[in-house]
Amino acid sequence: MYTSRRSVKPSNSCMTFCVVRMDDDDIFEEFGGNSFDAEQYTAEQFSKREEPRVRAQFQELVDWKASAADQLKRSVYSNYPQFISTSKEIAHLEVDMLDVRNLVSELSSSIKGLMQINTSYQHYKAPLPSTPSMSASSSTPSRRASVQLNIPPNAPTQKDIHELLGFTDRIDVYISERQFGEAVTEVNKVRTLFQEFPQLATALSVHSSIGTTKADIDERIELLSQTLARELRNPLLSQAQVRAVIKHMLALGQADSARSIFLETRTKRIQHEVRRLRHEADPPLYIAALARLLCSGIATTCDDFRQCLPQTDMLSGLIVWAVQELQTFAEQFQRHVFQSTDDFSVMGQCLRIAD
After folding, report:
1. Phi, psi angles (nearest 5°) of residue 238
2. Contact criterion met (CB below 8 Å) for 39 and 46
3. Residue 164: burial class (beta carbons within 10 Å; 0-12, 13-18, 19+)
4. Which of 22, 141, 147, 202 could form a disulfide with 26 if both were Cys (CB 3.0 to 4.6 A apart)?
5. Can you tell me the distance from the alpha carbon of 338 to that of 334, in angstroms, rounded to the nearest whole number?
6. pLDDT (tens digit per residue) in 91-149
7. What ranges make up the beta strands (E) of the chain?
8. CA separation for the pair 331, 20 (Å, rounded)
9. Is the pTM of this model over 0.70?
């Protein structure tokens, strides 16, 4: 490596310069030490030199500086894509490390929660009542076997508790992906667990720090029910999709809500078709079209209703709905016939059509 340091040798009363080769250790020792004095170094190098030579060396140093800056700039430009790529990789690695850290923390919390729930369940389990006959019977194997039948059920397994802890996350995923069948299956599993082990609700409440409580589970079930109800109100659903949604709502115990929404949707469909009818100048023509539309809508609704809600206790709601639709038809008939014309022959013709 070459430096700008020059040795001075007298020759014919003028100064000559020669470049001195210095390695990296010499450069660091001379310029990097704490004892280096820039002013003293400058005075030693230039105090005895002639002004033209000093100016020439100064210009050379300036040229070297510009050349070094230009070379540095070209190096930055040439390595900029690699710098950006490396920076992105570092950022991605930092995010991955943070994700791993969060996953490890969640795993640790889940393990602690599992241990706490098992301990809590054993604490809250109903104690076995002690009776003299039971204590006396414990002396023989046959009587001991009969006593074992009265012991409360075994504690839930680790798999059962894992199902509870991950329930809310799985339901959120299923709802977002519109996998309603899988969501309903999860709900039925959790309900079965609470029926078999009622003490789980108390254990979850005591150890609410694990992040899942009975209230959280009930909230997700309610969210699923609301999502299914909103889905059933979609007028663009096919009949197969309507049956599937109603099936899920029945599994969640939402039969009354499913019936009400189904009939409400059919009412809106019929009203939409009625608004599309043209008001003919001839009332009988309009009444005939209105009657066909209404009768067809009621008949189709009854057929679909029996397929979607075959339970006999649901038929009362269907009958009430059909009566209301007929009352609506009667009101429209009165408005378009009795209140729009005084011609009794037209009225009689319309009545025969509606009969």
Report:
1. -80, 170
2. no
3. buried
4. 22
5. 5
6. 888 888 888 888 887 777 767 666 665 555 454 444 434 434 334 334 433 333 333 33
7. 2-11, 14-21
8. 113
9. no
Q: List the beta bridge partners of residue 10.
A: 15
Instruction: Collapse the DSSP code of 207 into the 3-class scheme (helix H, G, I; strand E, B; otherwise coil) and give the result.
Output: coil
Hey, which residues does 19 pair with through a beta bridge?
6
Q: Identify any residues that bridge with 11 across adjacent strands, giving them in sequence order.
A: 14
Is the Cα torsion angle 85, 88, 92, 94 positive or negative in sign? Answer: positive
Contact (CB, 8 A) for 156 and 193: yes
Other C-beta atoms closer than 10 Å to the C-beta of 266 total: 20
147, 134 Cβ separation under 8 angstroms: yes
**8 A C-beta contact, residue 172 and residue 184:** no
Q: Largest Cα–Cα distance of the chain, in whole Å?
A: 142
Calculate the alpha carbon distances from 32 to 42, 62, 238 in Å: 16, 21, 82
- Identity of residue 166: G
At residue 272 the predicted structure's pLDDT band, cuts being 50, 70 and 90, is confident
Nearest Cα to 218, choosing from 253, 250, 266, 262?
253
Question: 229 pLDDT exceeds 90?
Answer: yes
In this structure, what token pair is assigned to residue 230?
């909103």
What are 293's two structure tokens? 């539309």
Residue bearing tokens 């014919």: 12
Q: How far apart are CA 204 and CA 89, in angstroms?
A: 42
Cα 157 to Cα 169: distance, rounded to the nearest angstrom: 20
